[in-house]
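[Meeting: bench + compute handoff]

Bench side (C.D.) handed over the final construct sequence. Compute side (W.E.) agreed to return the predicted structure before the next meeting so the bench team could plan truncations. Sequence as handed over:
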Amino acid sequence: MFELSYNQETVHKLLEASDKPLKAYNILFETQKLGIKSPTQVYRALDKLIELGKVHKIESKNAFVACSKINCSNQNSTFFLICDLCENIIELEDQKINKQLNKTCEKYGSKYKNHTIEISGTCSKCH
């Protein structure tokens, strides 16, 4: 088991406590009083947390969320439902979609390394 550094643990706890995705500079602002002083420290922590499968980057928002799974098995295959109004994010795992993507790639003679699918709309609370 890999032990998180102080900065990684601090960033991870902040993301776990947040009900919305956070941008790197929001993370920096929130963690400055805890000793994280530079964007580089935040980005290094985020990079390692992503590598460990504890955090995901939401590309469309250029923001980050804590993984909602205890043992994330979908580091290379991630699906998100993103509410445009409240920014609620639901992380999904769907083996049927993964299999279909593999079949589609094989059909074209390609292999994918990883993918992130982000579906935006409105959640059940907002519509």
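W.E. noted at the follow-up: The first helix runs from residue 6 to 17. C.D. will use this when planning the next construct.
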